[in-house]
Specification:
406 residues, alpha/beta, Dihydrodipicolinate Reductase, domain 2, 6-stranded parallel β-sheet, 16 strands, globular, disordered N terminus
Length: 406
């Protein structure tokens, strides 16, 4: 049953009730014999995969999903049924994330909502003393990104961002190889992703207003009339996400910083258009970004939703080129007489991204995709989206932690 409507002021104020609920959890570490209790906020497609990961770790990592939250009853009930099957107990179920954050029996939360809710819910979770797994992009605006890092450090919370490439061995192997200098100075990373089918076109015929806590969904957005497309196809709308930059480029820019050891960009420009998918979307179907890093390289990335050819991830060095899709390197394009001999990368073993988070909750160490790296990708994707939407190059001031046009 959908909870009764409350005033918007009371709804937003309800977050405050959770701020101190979990602060008793600020202990040095969880013992191996202590079962971790995890709440899942947002139970759609992505959360389903994350919950399945947790289910596989149930015994080896001594954990249980004990609460689920989703504004859509259909998602919420389906998630509750899966959790009961996996963990042998029905979870607490609610349409309002504050109800989960206020529970003292919840140690950590997984946030897998649409993009616009990631950071606002994470901020409240951190204030409530919860450890957090948050899906990418970590943030859509720089002020919230800054605040999230500050709160995580202030309350000593373990935050794993869902940029799982930081737990994949190919990127670590590439970083190790490049650190050896054999490819020479890397001046350009060129990447592209391409698809040609409507992967975003989720059915919304069964999404009825009576089954949705609409006020809870738009808790920090303008309160517009109910529209099932905003819930089921939120990827298409500016009020829900900053577009291809945050939805997709986040993974590829994060990979660039893994392999180079870079952190924050100097500047970003972007261009794109809506050329084929005239389906009511507000975001582009073709997109291109150029991002300059102070370490001395340009990252260029494109996204094409109108043709499936052209996906690549290439590293261009003074003495050759690395193809990270094929895991190969060669002297192609290298300086004459100094070309690197051709070879193949051997990936390091992949880690389980979710298991790494759980391990770090117990040890209180920082996870593979710590919030620091989430802040870095947030800066890059926010800059790029802003460059696209304003038509102006965007710069980043690391000392002031601010983005500005120039």
């Amino acid at each position: 049953m959908t909870p009764p409507a409350i005033s918007r002021r009371k709804f937003l104020a309800a977050s405050g009730a959770a701020l101190t609920a979990g602060m008793t959890l600020n202990r040095a570490a969880f013992g191996a014999n202590e079962r971790l209790s995890i709440g899942v906020i947002g139970t759609g497609n992505r959360a389903g995969a994350l919950m399945a990961d947790l289910a596989k770790l149930r015994d080896s990592h001594n954990l249980a999903v004990t609460a689920v939250c989703d504004v859509w009853r259909i998602n919420r009930e389906n998630a509750a049924h899966r959790v009961e099957r996996w963990f042998n107990k029905a979870p607490f179920s609610t349409s309002r994330f504050q109800d989960i954050l206020a529970r003292e029996d919840i140690d950590a939360v997984v946030i897998a909502t649409p993009d616009f809710a990631h950071t606002p819910i994470m901020l409240e979770a951190l204030k409530a003393g919860k450890d957090v797994y948050v899906e990418k992009p970590m943030a859509l605006d720089i002020d919230n990104a800054n605040l999230a890092v500050d709160l995580a450090r202030q309350y000593d919370r373990v935050v794993q961002v869902g940029t799982q490439r930081r737990s994949e061995g190919r990127w670590k192997a590439a970083h190790k190889f490049l650190s050896g200098g054999d490819l020479g100075h890397v001046s350009r990373i060129s990447a592209s992703n391409a698809f040609n089918h409507p992967r975003w076109a989720r059915d919304y015929a069964d999404c009825k207003q009576k089954d949705v806590d609409w006020e809870a969904y738009l808790f920090n957005r303008p309160m517009v009339d109910f529209d099932p497309k905003l819930l089921r196809r939120w990827h298409l709308y500016k009020m829900c996400t900053n577009g291809i930059s945050g939805l997709w480029m986040v993974h590829l820019i994060d990979a660039a910083t893994i392999i180079t050891g870079a952190s924050y960009p100097n500047s970003a420009v972007a261009h794109g258009g809506l050329y084929v998918w005239k389906d009511g979307r507000e975001h582009n179907d073709v997109f291109h970004a150029l991002i300059d890093f102070p370490e001395g390289f340009l990252f260029d990335w494109s996204m094409n939703l109108t043709n499936a050819a052209g996906s690549h991830y290439n590293i261009h060095g003074r003495y050759g080129t690395m193809d990270l899709n094929a895991l190969t390197y060669s002297g192609a394009g290298g300086e004459e007489g100094k070309e690197i001999k051709a070879g193949k990368l051997t990936p390091e073993p992949d880690q389980n991204h979710m298991a790494n988070w759980i391990d770090c909750i117990r040890s209180r160490q920082r996870p593979n995709a710590d919030i620091e790296y989430g802040h870095q990708h947030a800066v890059a994707t926010i800059m790029t989206a802003k460059a696209l939407h304003t038509g102006q190059r965007q710069r980043y001031d690391q000392e002031k932690r601010s983005i500005y046009a120039g």
